[in-house]
Design a protein that fits this description.
With 699 residues, the chain is an alpha/beta fold. The strands form eight sheets. The chain has an eight-stranded parallel beta barrel with strand order 12-13-14-17-20-21-22-23. Helix 9 packs antiparallel against helix 13 and helix 13 packs parallel to helix 14.
Amino acid sequence: MPPFPDRLEAGSAYPLGATFDGLGINFAVFSAHAEKIELCLFDPAGRREVTRLALPECTDEIWHGYLPGGRPGLIYGYRAHGPYEPYHGHRFNPHKLLLDPYARRLTGEIRNSDALYGYRVNSPRADLSFDRRDSAPAVAKGVVTWDDFCWDDDRPPNVPWSETVIYEAHPKGLTIQRFDLRPRERGTFTALADQGVIDHLRRLGITAVELMPVQAFVQDRRLLDQGLRNYWGYNTLGFFAPEPRYLSEGTADDMRIAVRRLHAAGIEVILDVVYNHTAESDELGPTLSFRGLDNASYYRLRPDSPRHYINDTGTGNTVNLSHPRVLQMVMDSLRYWVTSFHVDGFRFDLGTILGREAHGFDAGSGFFDAVRQDPVLSRVKLISEPWDPGPGGYQLGRHPPGFAEWNDRFRDSVRRYWRGDAGQRSEFAARLAGSADLFDHRGRRPPASINYAACHDGFTLLDAVSYAQRHNEANGESNRDGQSENFSANWGTEGPSDDPATRETRFRLQCAMLATVFLAQGTPMLLAGDEFGRTQNGNNNAYAQDNETSWINWRLADGPDGRRLTEFVARAIAVRRDNPVLRCASFLHGKDQPAPDVLDIAWFDEQGEIIPGAAWENPAERTLVLRRAAAATDGSVPILTCFFNPTAEDRSFKLPAPPLPTTLLLDSADPGATERPVEGSFLPVKARSVVLARSVYRK
């Protein structure tokens, strides 16, 4: 290792982070309230601090310095000097080594140690006390990188929203039990890039993989003390660095190769990102980065008591996106993942937080405005989780144009309708039509509604038809965590059943719900493993289950039910792809008439009659027929009709007028059925199933 100078040169305030220019490294870090910031450099193993150099300049609250001769691979951290005054929101403690918020690679793991805390753990004065132990041996450190990857002819697939089919997956859980892969590759980006995994996605018809958090995150001390782990990863430490556990070769190029291979297969990559809070928790949490650099700027503090944090996230702290430098960090992070990793979009965890201003949620918040005008970010897919635990935190349908939203009302409606709940027909119809009541404003379109029957947060699809209650005992919270209402049913037995009738009911309901997702207007999303009946044994909050509870069991795909279900999902997605009427890019309101006596959208009862207004409110009526039509480029008018029967009896539906030759395309009660003509004017629909038929009007 070359000797380091006694002092740094002035360097530049831009760009933030550690930037190698071929001759040395420029360091720049934001802190509005620090009195001094020191750069700490470590030996190649990252264990011993070899020198400590003050950043010599501070320009517009950016501390900066330049290290001549510095090269990529250098391991570093910061120490920030300033007041330790919790009552005024300041928590500077130079004994704590701090990770650069812009670090692009991490080395070393955070170890469970009291030295991580800026105060004396177990002190009667709690966080008002001051700890002088050096935290460097117990923290992760930044590594200077040089991003040089051959993207060559890589091009974003740019799949239109109307053609998008999302597959939500955990980056580890998806492949950790792929025993056809080498052990060191399982559960990593290398496995995600495996041809077998990509072939499975392509066979299904998936156009986008939405990965749960891949940004570097921290293991919660509370979970580690219980012998558990933070599996989901919603506990971010570094907004620019990939999680090291997902890199089989130890470099970020593992992720870049995976993205490139998915792109070559026509599949986009969407990242689930967490910018609403960090891993430092509340005032009793560790000092790892942001808290030690400038607590009063990075976090939203209570105006009446700056010692305490505003906790709209339910995790202990809330990132202060109203501060321009904090907003800049988030924007820089998002652009970095697009430009350096070629990702195609983002799903924002607790997205409502990102739109919070002093007066509450604002669709015109600084964050939303910044993203919508950004020449890079405004062109990728943007998805929000439109709720948070804070006051006024449920904002489904109220995000600005350019953002799609997870639609939990779709999920709940689908589950209640197929469970057989009374009075659900009207709500179910609204969700099938793209939730126009929620999204049809400001030029937004049906794809803004992300439709799903199951996601990572809650029951898997199989569990939604196998358990009436949550079973989260393994989480160590006395089964009090997770949603208490899942709109689920066990159909006779709680959990696995050997009863053929129960198993058939559950299988049929899974097919019916999946068909509903793919036949509705909006953007369909499939939870990884639901295509072959994955279970979490009734755990609806498996955030701490880094084990077979959460990992996808690929052996299920080879079982008889798994094969049938997978083939049905692939067929349903193919039918959606081949029939543009099912994925209209605009809302249908029953005002246009593309063919004589055929409206663009219409609703019928079992007798083939238009449902009158009063009948929608009849709680006893449950069956439903949805017909959609749109002119094709050749002048014909394809007419697609969905017949929904959530009852326990087989029914016979009369085909709505006008009479036209009709072909059955899909039958959820007969997953292997191929296209066949419909004889006569009635269509049999089995219990708890949905049938799709097509007619074509030609002039």
